[in-house]
Amino acid sequence: MQIYLPIAEMPVSVLLILGMGAAVGFVSGMFGIGGGFLMTPLLIFLGIPPAIAVATQSAQIAASSTTGALAALRRDALDLKLAAVLTAGGFVGTVMGVWAFAAMRRAGQLDLVIVLSYVTLFTAIGMLMVGESARDFWSRWKGTAKPRRRAGGHAAMFGLPLRMKFPRSKLYVSVLPVAGISFLVGFAGTILGIGGGFIMVPVLLYLFRVPTGVVIGTSQVQVLFTALLAVILQATLNGAVDIVLAIMLIVGGVFGAQFGARAGRALRADLFRFLLGLLVLAVGIRFAVEIALTPAEPFSIYLPEGRR
Amino acid sequence: MTFRILSALLLAAMGLLPALPAKAERLMVSLSAHQIAIGSNYTGAQMALFGVVEDDGRDLLNLESYDVVVTVRGPREGMTVRQKERVGFVWINRSQQKFVAVPTVLAVASNRPTGEIATDAARRQMRLGLRAIVDAPEMSFESHDPDEPFRQALIRLKTKEGHWSEDPRGVVFVGPGFFRAPISVPGTAPTGNYEVEVVLLSGDRLAARRIASFEVVKTGFEERITALSQERSLPYGLGIGAMSLLFGWMASVIFRRD
């Protein structure tokens, strides 16, 4: 069954979009990430104009992270104070990102910046996570227990002024690195057309050593507000949000996210980190391969004006 | 009638009629529809073009030798074709060629291959066929030396996308001087005004040319949504934001297990 998208100006298969929404929703619910880094390339592959793909899938991210955040709230599995600081930093980063996006676009080579950022960011974070998990597995197999939390790590970062207590996250840290990281995530996320949850989760896990049980809920609150801001900005400034596409993605996504969240709770924490690391690494490698291999079609058409 | 033609031929053969008066073919064309309305189940549309060739009777014997080329041009847009080149380990977009006012949809139909109908020069001059249209000087600002691959790439990519096509058997002569050509508009084609150019050729000579047009417009829900997103973009954005929250909340109520 086909339905016409009024803003993207093209017909798409309803079942295909619902299925894609469900699949990405599953991953998103499982790992507490927005899933934009998976959905955007899929939609573009279907022929939906990139600007509309990026803008519209943030509506789905907002919906699925609402569900996730509410579930985490009921289970008391989030740190609202930390989420508030992250959201504030993320907002500033998002607005700056929108500005930088336009500037780079004017200068040309935005595509290259995006792909290279994907490769560096994803490969680095993915390798960090997979490596850490592999060491965990190895030490458990050898029978030598590793201390779970290293007290007083990152001394320089923790010694900055404006320290703040985040009791839920067992964190007593300066606000500056937290806000700084969330600013960077908002900034990079906007330029890459993603929510940034997949950067935020590893940062909270590894850099700030927030307990795994709190990370997902907290990240989802931050993703929710960032995505909501993105939807409203995109619709108002660019007119690039397609409501028909958004509804289909949301309906598919909320169902997928439910099952994903259940699967995520059933996972062991170390396996969870390993799988998330693998996923991030896989996306990084995919982009690395894309720019390293000889393309089958070296030419591409670019439409300077308009959204298409 | 036959007598008149015969006598004309005879006179011509005898050199008694040194200059035949300029032939006056008349070409009449009609589209089966002038508007394509986009609704929620729109997946593209088909229509037909009908045409009748009339001349003033002197050339009836010659009716078989007419050729017809139908060119459909969608709304125009500027396009840049970029070529990836290897720099170190990565392939990046290096050289590019800008094309101005490229028809987003371009369909050429003829009763036989355009290569057989007219010479290269004539085709280029009359813009007959994808190749001739892309080679036309108005397609690009500046002509680089190696711009040939870019023109080929433009044709290749647009054809692969399904927006450009060339059908050497698309125009069918149903009877003497009466032809028909199907026109199909792909579902992904943009809205706007489409121009249909019908060229009648007799040998290499342009005998007649007619332009018809149709428009592709959104109707009903699709039209209202587009208008809303453009004219009241803030309420539209806030509405979608609120809708996302509502759906997310509903899901958490439906799937609540505790």
TrEMBL record, chain A:
Keyword Repeat: no
Membrane association type: Multi-pass membrane protein
Keywords: Cell membrane, Membrane, Transmembrane, Transmembrane helix
Ranges that cross the membrane: 12-35, 42-62, 82-103, 110-131, 174-207, 214-233, 239-259, 271-289
One Pfam match: TauE
Cellular compartment(s): Cell membrane; Membrane
Transmembrane helix recorded as keyword: yes
GO cellular component, one term: plasma membrane
Assigned protein family: Belongs to the 4-toluene sulfonate uptake permease (TSUP) (TC 2.A.102) family.
Matches recorded under PANTHER family: MEMBRANE TRANSPORTER PROTEIN MJ0441-RELATED (PTHR43701), MEMBRANE TRANSPORTER PROTEIN YTNM-RELATED (PTHR43701:SF12)
Name recorded for this polypeptide: Probable membrane transporter protein
Native source species: Enterovirga rhinocerotis
From TrEMBL, chain B:
TM annotation in the entry: 234-255
The name this protein goes by in its record: Uncharacterized protein (TIGR02186 family)
Transmembrane keyword on record: yes
Keywords: Membrane, Signal, Transmembrane, Transmembrane helix
Cleaved signal peptide residues: 1-24
Superkingdom assignment: Bacteria
Any Pfam family the entry gives: Alph_Pro_TM
